[in-house]
Specification:
- Helix content is 34%, strand content 28%.
- With 270 residues, the protein is of the alpha+beta class.
- The protein has two domains: 139 residues, Jelly Rolls (Sandwich), CATH 2.60.120.10; 115 residues, Jelly Rolls, CATH 2.60.120.
- The strands form four sheets. Strands 1-5-4-7 form a four-stranded antiparallel sheet, with helices on one face.
- The longest helix has 30 residues.
- It is elongated, with a radius of gyration of 21 Å.
- 35% of the residues are buried.
- Pfam families: cNMP_binding.
- This is Cyclic nucleotide-binding domain-containing protein.
- It comes from Ectopseudomonas oleovorans.
């Protein structure tokens, strides 16, 4: 996916990272029918089915909303994953000869969620694509109405999530390193590609920890409703995410217990 016009370097880095994921996800999966061959000015949606996803094998596709170009898709991009989400209706216009491979949606999802590694990759891809789409939509809106979504940059020491705040977004660290703090005590590390803030969104409770950038961080910001919709329409991914959160919670609980024990333990000099 290429956004129209100039874009920050970190957006291009994210795009390149996402570009490599679909080929891994469809590895070993046979197309559901013959490849779609599109001539210039053809519309992919004329051939699309609700039960399929599509991998661009060759050629560019321009994505248009209300007769305005949002971005361009190219070789390796996946189309159709978000068709069950509450997203705007997009048109896919070929700008040259395009070859697209169709895959049965359920067969693809079964393969793409067969292992934890695959599930994590699929989740990162879907969240990343959703954020790139949000970034493209933002460019169509006047500055005063731009939503708090897409990408944010945090300097070292800045607070990404503050303990006790309400949960309106889920965050993905796409670049950099952060730390998790509870009641002023450091309880964990947050590394690149980790998803943070999902627990409070799921449970409708205030943030249980603060997340503070340790280095300069680039963060994807996913609105609560979009994230919940993604989880509801792709339960396999939700299951994987819940497993990951459970592991993180267990690790954090052990660290908090250790820190509290150290604070309560009398010093050897007393």
């Amino acid at each position: 996916m290429y956004l129209i016009g100039d874009q920050p370097p970190y957006v291009d880095q994210l795009r390149q990272a996402l570009q490599a994921i679909p080929a891994r996800l469809v590895s070993g999966v046979a197309p559901s029918r013959q490849p779609l061959q599109l001539s210039p000015a053809a519309l992919l949606q004329d051939w699309m089915r609700n039960d399929e996803v599509y991998l661009i094998q060759r050629g560019p596709l321009r994505v248009v909303l209300d007769q305005r170009a949002l971005f361009q898709l190219g070789e390796g991009d996946l189309i159709g994953l978000g068709r069950t989400l509450d997203l705007p209706t997009l048109n896919y216009e070929s700008e040259a000869d395009v070859r697209v491979l169709p895959y049965d949606r359920e067969t693809f999802l079964a393969a793409a969620t067969a292992t934890p590694v695959q599930r994590d990759a699929l989740l990162r891809y879907m969240l990343g694509q959703q954020s790139l789409l949000a970034q493209a939509l933002i460019r169509l809106k006047p500055p005063v109405t731009q939503p708090a979504t897409g990408f944010r940059r945090y300097a070292a020491g800045e607070v990404i999530i503050r303990q006790g705040d309400s949960a309106e977004h889920v965050f993905v660290i796409t670049e950099g390193h952060a730390e998790a703090w509870v009641d002023g005590c450091k309880v964990g590390e947050v590394c690149q590609d980790e998803i943070v803030g999902a627990l409070a969104v799921f449970t409708h409770t205030p943030r249980t920890a603060s997340v503070i950038a340790k280095t300069v961080c680039t963060v994807l910001v996913i609105p609560q409703d979009q994230f919940v919709s993604l989880m509801e329409t792709t339960p396999r991914i939700a299951h994987s995410l819940i497993e990951n959160m459970a592991r993180h919670i267990d690790t954090l609980n052990k660290e908090v217990t250790r820190l509290r024990g150290a604070q309560e333990r009398p010093s050897s000099g007393n």
